[in-house]
């Protein structure tokens, strides 16, 4: 055969013949097993991407970060022996995962871990993620040097700056649109660049031996999901109500308490409410010289159960104009209690202000005995707005017994020469069915009241009672202003 026979067309035919004799390229799942570097780094990059996504729709703000954290756990454990930086990444990622998974499970309960604990968890997550990104940058630099490439991983370094900026925007409660849109665009570009960085090392022939593990990826994923599911089920099943400390009511009444009660009864304090008032609150009423009572208000909530709400104001002696306010409720026909109950009181004042702490107790009767407990949470907060203060009370009631009831009390003081009207709105929130227990994050009746301004919302029913009176600054006469039911937020 002459050289002429090997013309260009023949070369093409020959190459085509060779190519046709070869099989197709193996699928990605086969090459991933052969090149664990590609598989591990893709998991890390996509895991971090999902973890940092916040899509407030269909629960994706919880689902995507969970998937992302699982991916990073699988990715970093395969890389942990490649260099010291990947080892540090693995440790920091485990710290983050434990903190994050604990928070997610805790969100299935109505318990409040407290403001300090919440801030600590947030700080741990932010610091762990920031340190992880720094170690990831250094890990990629070390790998590039080992592969004989130029030292540099600008996309990983840029992700550190991006995350710091994101955390700063969150702490500053930034509400604009331009910067967040720009942050999203930059995030997409950085993730794309990180994937290219991983691919570049893979094409350069860089290979690793995946760190040995005692549990396969599938087994680890299944274990994490199982523990996670068990934790959430336990949260919903056993921590959907507050741990109340019930105890029998003691009736050791001193002569001083008896004398104050007699004075209050003469002034018009309702006897059935007075018997529920604690000795400490009774003692504060010593020397009282005026009592105002609202009319009885009856409400029907879920299952047509009747709730009675009433307000009482006691004018106290001493400097300035002092009033001790009482808001009392009683279930005349007790319903099924689903987890928690909530009370929120709006105090609209001009020259009045709350004094001291809020007080109160809750009760129920069973087998001829009365049981009582303190509120699980009870606080009074100044808002700084037209509504000068709000009282919050969270509690749980047992399904057993009858006459479930309670009261909340607080002091109002006016040290000026002129007095004005006092307006309060008492909102009682009650879960109407079991659906109220299956929300995520779990929501207590008080949380729902705060979110809906004391109005009915979804599986939570709410009723409102106004108690308001006017003090004439010239004559000193006191009139109760007309009361309205289920009034709108003011």
What do you see in this structure?
The chain has about 500 residues and is of the alpha+beta class. The chain is about 45% helix and about 25% strand. The protein has 13 helices and 14 strands. It has helices at about 10-20, 30-35, 35-50, 60-80, 85-105, 115-145, 155-170, 180-205, 215-240, 255-265, 270-275, 280-285, 445-450; strands spanning about 245-250, 290-295, 295-300, 305-315, 320-330, 340-350, 355-365, 370-375, 375-380, 385-395, 400-415, 420-430, 460-470, 480. The strands form two sheets. Strands 1, 2, 3, 4, 5, 7, 8 and 11 form an eight-stranded antiparallel sheet that branches. A six-stranded antiparallel sheet has the order 9-10-6-12-13-14, with helices on one face. Mean pLDDT is about 80; it is low at about 30-35 and about 485-490.
Structural class from helices and strands? Answer: alpha+beta
Low-confidence stretches are 28-34, 483-490
Q: Report Rg.
A: 33 Å
How many E-type strands? 14
Residue fraction in strands: 15-25%
**Net shape:** elongated
* Number of helices in the DSSP assignment: 13
Terminal-residue CA separation: 101 Å
> Helix fraction?
40-55%
Average pLDDT score: 82
Order of helices and strands: HHHHHHHHHEHHHEEEEEEEEEEEHEE
What's the main sheet like? 8 strands, antiparallel
SSE arrangement:
Elements lengths: L7 H14 L6 H7 L1 H16 L8 H20 L4 H23 L8 H32 L7 H18 L6 H26 L13 H22 L8 E2 L6 H13 L3 H4 L4 H6 L5 E4 L3 E4 L5 E11 L4 E11 L9 E8 L4 E14 L2 E5 L3 E6 L4 E9 L6 E13 L6 E11 L13 H8 L7 E12 L6 E3 L10
Helix pairs in contact: 2-3, 3-4, 3-8, 4-5, 5-6, 5-9, 6-7, 7-8
């Amino acid at each position: 055969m002459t050289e002429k026979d090997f013309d260009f067309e023949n070369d093409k035919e020959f190459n085509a013949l060779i190519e046709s004799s070869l099989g197709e390229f193996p699928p990605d799942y086969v090459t991933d097993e052969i090149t664990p570097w590609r598989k591990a780094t893709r998991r890390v990059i996509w895991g971090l991407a999902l973890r940092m996504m916040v899509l407030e729709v269909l629960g994706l703000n919880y689902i995507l970060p969970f998937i992302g954290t699982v991916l990073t756990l699988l990715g970093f454990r395969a890389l942990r022996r490649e260099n010291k930086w990947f080892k540090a990444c693995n440790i920091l990622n485990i710290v983050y995962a434990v903190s994050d998974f604990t928070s997610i499970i805790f969100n299935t309960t109505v318990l409040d871990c407290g403001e300090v604990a919440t801030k600590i968890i947030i700080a741990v997550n932010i610091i762990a993620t920031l340190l992880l990104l720094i170690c990831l940058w250094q890990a990629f630099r070390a790998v590039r040097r080992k592969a004989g490439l130029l030292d540099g991983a600008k996309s990983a370094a840029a992700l550190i700056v991006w995350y710091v900026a994101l955390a700063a925007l969150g702490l500053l409660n930034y509400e604009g649109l331009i910067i967040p849109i720009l942050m999203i665009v930059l995030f997409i570009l950085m993730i794309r660049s990180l994937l290219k960085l991983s691919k570049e090392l893979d094409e350069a022939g860089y290979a690793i031996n995946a760190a040995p593990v005692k549990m396969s990826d599938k087994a680890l994923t299944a274990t994490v999901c199982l523990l996670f599911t068990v934790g959430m089920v336990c949260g919903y099943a056993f921590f959907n109500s507050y741990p109340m400390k019930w105890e029998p009511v003691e009736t050791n009444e001193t002569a001083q308490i008896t004398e104050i009660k007699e004075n209050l009864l003469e002034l018009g304090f309702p006897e059935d409410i007075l018997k529920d008032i604690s000795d400490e609150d009774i003692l504060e009423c010593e020397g009282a010289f005026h009592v105002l009572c609202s009319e009885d208000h009856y409400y029907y909530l879920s299952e047509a159960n009747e709730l009675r709400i009433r307000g009482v104001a006691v004018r106290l002696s001493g400097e300035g104009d002092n009033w001790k306010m009482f808001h009392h409720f009683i279930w005349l026909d007790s319903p099924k209690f689903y987890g928690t109950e909530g009370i929120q009181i709006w105090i609209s004042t001009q020259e009045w202000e709350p004094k001291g702490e809020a007080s109160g107790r809750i009760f129920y009767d069973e087998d001829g005995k009365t049981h009582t407990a303190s509120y699980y949470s009870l606080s009074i907060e100044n808002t700084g707005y037209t509504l000068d203060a709000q009282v919050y009370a969270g509690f749980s009631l047992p399904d057993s017994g009858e006459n479930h009831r309670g009261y909340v009390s607080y002091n109002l003081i006016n040290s000026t020469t002129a007095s004005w009207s006092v307006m309060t709105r008492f909102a009682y929130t009650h879960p109407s069915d079991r659906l109220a227990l299956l929300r995520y994050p779990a929501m207590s009746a008080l949380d729902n009241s705060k979110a809906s301004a004391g109005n009915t919302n979804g599986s939570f029913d709410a009723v409102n009672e106004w108690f308001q009176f006017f003090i004439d600054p010239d004559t000193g006469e006191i009139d109760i202003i007309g009361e309205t039911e289920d009034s709108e937020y003011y």
